[in-house]
What we know:
This protein is mainly α. The chain has helices at residues 4-8, 12-20, 31-43, 50-54, 59-65.
Amino acid sequence: MLGGHVIKTGVQRPLLSLIDRGAFTALAMNGAAAIHDFEIAMWGNTSEPVEDTIGRDGSAWWRRRRCS
């Protein structure tokens, strides 16, 4: 099962290589992955830049979401 981050960070390329070599016959993806895949196919990028969303080191996202 693939999520959106797999598509928007470029990890799908190695997975496609494995599919070409017969390692997988099918993959499932959630809605976010399908949307990002469509965006990349249509416009060459996604509408949600990872760095702007969670910060370069990921800590900004964690601070906003952390329970007190």
